[in-house]
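#onboarding

Welcome to the new folks! Below is a worked example of what a typical request in this channel looks like: someone posts a single protein sequence, and someone else replies with the predicted structure as tokens. Don't worry about understanding the tokens yet, we'll cover that in week two.

Example request:
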Amino acid sequence: MVEPEQQRRFAVEVVRTLRDAGFEAYWAGGCVRDELLANVPKDYDVATNATPREIREVFGRRRTLAIGAAFGVITVLGPKGSGMVEVATFRRDAAYSDGRHPDHVTFSSAEEDASRRDFTVNGLFYDPIGQEVIDFVGGREDLTAKRIRAIGDPRERFAEDKLRMLRAIRFSATLGFEIQQQTTDTIREMAGQIVVVSAERIAQEMRRMLVDPGRAEAVRMLIETDLAEPILPEVIPSGDVQRGRVEHALAVIAGLRQPGFPLALGALLHELVDVRGAESVCSRWRLSNKEAARTAWLVEHHSALTTAKALPWSRLQPLLIAEGIEDLLALHEAAHPDRLDEVIHCRSRLQRPPEQLDPPPLITGDDLKAHGIPPGPQYRVLLQRVRDAQLDEEIHGRAEALAMAERLAGQ
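Example response:
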């Protein structure tokens, strides 16, 4: 596990080691932004005029990975608890033919390296030894103004990598910054081009957006910048009724406390689509089977607990023993804050001993077969009917269960 203090010390040591070897080196990108905002960086990147070969010579091949060497990036491995630091050579990018990666890179100066980055607040360098900020792009001014602004011409920055349009939304919502007007106008103008970005990369940005406290504002900005249409048209208001549902969905996701991604997505979609609609979104973003199943299950059962106290045990119990019950309870709390008594009722039932909460079935398919009931699709129905009767305490033993199954089979 990475310890923030150890990670920070290692990131300082990487810079110091490169300096001692005669190279220029700074922290770069998001870690500088977070440092200046007094936030703990999630990771650290270092930019240097050392080439990839020289970086590996300085730190040794056993402590380095050259996975990104083609783009001038070497990963330096730290001691236990310190994580790793990506060290990148100052570079100038060629054209981005695939809309994601430069066709090739040319090693350059710190100023040129800063100018090829996405937003000014991510284009800063920091000397952690001299505690000095190096700003070639006006990023400090934009940090002070709480502004997200593309470096240079926003059309060029977004043409290089269309995903940057989504990143602008995420940074704005996460940091509570406004997007500069020209950058916003360009996003709206180019929004339809986001479809060239792979579904997996779009999904990763949506994961980050929807688990962040600024998730509701992020979705609102997706709508306002027209990015929702190609990515998530389900949230576009198309009339007064739909507009009301969208506003309620935004209020619900804003009320969630530290949700995982499936819960946040399920809460956003729960009144806007049915199960098939939820599955369509998950398929569109190529989510994992586990994420898709949980999201669809939440959409399907989002209102199931509104009458929990009145439900027979045979209907409530399957929900309570489901893997996603905590997410369902959290969704109910956010969507129905005036009906928390239903949640209290469910949680009291969840405190039952395992043998009461989920007792073993009285009979199985083998019992039905041994009892002379012909195998077939009816087995599933028979076993479910008997299980419901068991949970509702209408029958109490194997003999009663078999008698009930036989009677039902005869009918």
